Amino acid sequence: MSGFILRLALLALVGGALSACGSTRGPIAAGYGYEASNGYQSCVPYARARSGIDLRGDGWQWWDAALGRYDRDQRPRPGSVLVLQRTSRLRDGHVAVVARVLGPREIRVDHANWASGGLKGRVARDQAVIDVSERNDWSAVRVWYPPAGVVGSTVFPAYGFIHPTRRWAAVE
Fold it and tell me: Average pLDDT in the 74-78 region?
């Protein structure tokens, strides 16, 4: 029971620190796995700039937009973009750039705007993403949440990975 109370106290401390961050308009210092920043960064322009994949639209729209333009599949590779589907919690979906592949069911990503409150719109680097799909096909993932220091319990549906390799139409 004392471990539970300690965790509650830690969460209260973290929550207090986050609420203080949310009240400022100035720069937020690096911490919790996030970079120091003066401005808001959305996941789409961040992923576009980091990966070189030139797609537009909300994160969830990238999967269809990549069809015929970029290679896409269920295998992560460094530099590829993980595309999360649109859900009630992710109205615009989400995209994240694969930084490292640690194993068949774990990768690290760099992404923007994964947090809420004072950390909303910040860039997080080298964050864990775990494949929890039944078929080991990256269709369901759990994502690291730095303020809590854990992989979140929410399972997010994913389309897969878009690779920066352009597909060229056949010349007739």
Answer: 97
